[in-house]
UniProtKB/TrEMBL annotation, chains A, B:
It comes from the Bacteria. This is Transcriptional regulator, TetR family. It comes from Paenibacillus algorifonticola. Keywords: DNA-binding, Transcription, Transcription regulation. One of its GO terms (molecular function) is DNA-binding transcription factor activity.
Length: 195, 195
């Protein structure tokens, strides 16, 4: 083998991400990734049981790095209006999704496919995001800006009620001329429910 | 031609619906529908410019008959609580979608496909439903049960915020054990926003 650095899981995922971006999720095989790493097929299968497992792990890491972690910064702020913070958090989520759909189209396409295939992985990602919303809602309840209530249930409701604006099934509607006005209408009603 | 009754648009749509239910939307051709009606291919094309146009008109009629019209009855009621009426309306919409997904699977599959293809048709169907919600919201505002506000924008927000529970992209999630609890969470937040 030409490649003498030890083959870590991270190195495989880095390679897989590069190859997936180059060929697209449908056309990339485990063999393509093995070739890129200059290792055998079997070596890769020692780390990932199947192509599906590899795709899912790449998607999971991409969602953490490109969605959950940047949003964490917004959710962690502890000053200013919770309503403004919540709207910023939702807009950041929505903008990220729209941006990746255009500018990281291959990874976005894989994420769309994995959303249908890997229910548990996506449920865990959503739980992570809902916890961030709950932190903001709790802060708003604590300061008296929001009515008291069950922050976790409200956070989940906020995520679900904005599905149309961040779920990849609606990617084609995100370029509609009405989409921002529609988000405003939903946001106003949700905010009225919180205050 | 064996069939001597005049070929009305309704008769073609009735036949198309039967044939589509039998073979499924992907496997049904215009020829299958022509054969069923014992007319030529060309006769059908005089009424519908393309297979897509025929599928869309069948779907439009199915949505009117099976979704919009039955819900109209709920929206038209003028007594009792508007909140109870609104929840009944939403639950009826959700139950209808779940029922058709299971018991009228071929028509539901066609509707799912048409949702992606025929943006204007679906937008008109949604406008129709949003108008029904607006009637309920206005009644609630008028009676003082709901806060004053823009009933049309609120109605659209309510429809959009419940997307996950009635849009065909989520059909596989409707059998999840959490789906009713999720609807309750969204409903509570929306109702708090209205009251």
């Amino acid at each position: 083998m030409a490649n003498e650095t030890p083959l870590t899981k991270e190195a495989i995922l880095d390679a897989a991400e590069q190859v997936l971006r180059r060929y697209g999720p449908d056309k990339t095989s485990v063999t393509d990734i093995a070739k890129f790493l200059q290792v055998s097929h079997g070596t890769l299968y020692r780390h990932f049981a199947s192509k599906a497992a590899l795709r899912e792990t790449v998607t999971e890491r991409w969602l953490d790095k490109c969605v959950s972690e940047p949003l964490e910064g917004i959710a962690a702020a502890t000053d200013g209006s919770a309503a403004v913070q919540l709207r910023s958090w939702l807009e950041a989520l929505i903008q990220k999704k729209r941006l990746y759909a255009l500018e990281d189209a291959e990874m976005f396409a894989m994420y769309s496919a994995v959303t249908l295939e890997a229910v548990d992985l996506i449920a865990a990602h959503i739980d992570h995001l809902v916890k961030q919303i709950a932190v903001i809602v709790e802060r708003g309840m604590h300061s008296g800006e929001f009515k008291p209530g069950e922050a976790d249930a409200m956070a989940r409701a906020i995520f679900l009620a904005t599905t149309k604006f961040h779920h990849p099934a609606f990617v084609r509607e995100w370029s509609s001329k009405d989409i921002d006005q529609d988000f405003d209408a939903v946001w106003s009603l949700l905010l009225a429910g919180l205050q």
